[in-house]
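so my prof wants the structure for this chain in the tokens format not the other one, which i didnt know existed until like an hour ago. anyway here's the sequence
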Amino acid sequence: MGISATLRAQRHKLLPERWRSELVALFRLAAPIVATQFAWVTMLITDTAMIGHLGPKPLAGATLSLMTFYLGYVLCFGVTMATAGLAAQAYGARKPRYVRRVIRQGLWVAITLVTPCMFVFGHVTWLLTTLGQPPELMGYAEAYMGTLMWCLLPAIAFSVLRNFVSALGRPTPAFWVMLAGVPVNALLDYGLIFGNFGLPRLELAGAGIATTTVNILMFLSLAAIAVLRRPFAKYEIFARFWRPDWAYFRQIFVIGTPIAGITLMEAGFFIAAVFVMGWLGPVAIAAHMIAIQLPHVTFMVPMGLAQAATVRVGQAAGRRDVDGAYHAGRVAFVVTFGVMMVTTVVILTIPELFASLFLDRAHADSAEVLALAVSLLFLAAFFQLADGLQAVAAGALRGLNDTAIPMVIAGVSYWGFGAGSGLWLAFGQDMGAKGIWYGFIVGLTCAAVVLVWRFAYQRRRKYLPPPVESHEQLPHSH
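here's what i got, hopefully its the right format
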């Protein structure tokens, strides 16, 4: 008994230091990733703001194309997110050759997925017409998509390289590259959309050219860093690029397809709400589009923490460190809880101030839109915590290659409980737009509770993915 008590006391004495160590490691990894996400959102806001100055119809047409493009982007991004966990596991196992193989095949997968997406984007007018969108917007949608579509491959390839540097615990170069892209994107938008700086006035086509150019430059910049700068250069990620490695190619699809499924279901959950708001009238859709902006921005924090959790859990799993892997997940949950509680307070404090930024009070219906937007922001405060926890839980499970069951959990939560309750409250109980947002709370809370339980269940099982060395028995190239 005395020895056991002494051991317990020693463990309790070590616990604070263990938490401090993991917190420091998590923050060092997560801070640049979160900052990168904010830089990405800044680019999107810049594009939307400048396109908006062309008029309501160009903005509406561009929005239709952007939503179509975004679904393709989410599909490709989701599948290639498997490279983050796999590369982190290889790095944790001190197998640099496997890191190279994962990233190389991640780029192969990007090319494979982008090709059919480009075909769909090339027929955007037919697609949007089939979906019953207004004919007068088709010209604008096609003009924007015609140049925007070419940024998909460099954007996904950049995300694969970002997974590479993050898996090594050094995400800062990706942040600086993305940050540099923000002013370049703004200047190119300003020049090519409106014909400034001696450039031709190309309007929507110019916006797509600007976005494509910036994504190509960002990919080339991060690729140069990966090839030339220590410690990335020693991995030689582009060496023998055209030699196949079918084992990892298949594994990226096996692990990444459910990730893409989760991402598509969540994105589709929110995108579908836009169309449902349209059934409720212009005031509802305007208030919804205003209110959703703030939670979209704050979500960048848990999104970055989720990517960091994938890497931290994956690195420990690669070392075969069961306690370290699940401790990393627990710390990520605690940090997310604290951060999202702060964002909840912020949203509850400034709803009217934030909503008023998007409205001209001189318009007759502004007061009605503002009142509804404020009430929706109040509800947003209550799904922030659940949204953050479900994102980080899914990220921690990705570090264990556990993605298939979480996809089922996400589907049932978002589209079963969330969408079902939202539609029932909106139309069956005449709650309108608020009913849809109560559906957000239900769906995200269900996902958070069950995904956190899934992580705890795997912890009780002491589950780890197969060791990196097991791939030696599979056909591959060196």
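also thought this was worth mentioning. The first helix runs from residue 2 to 52.
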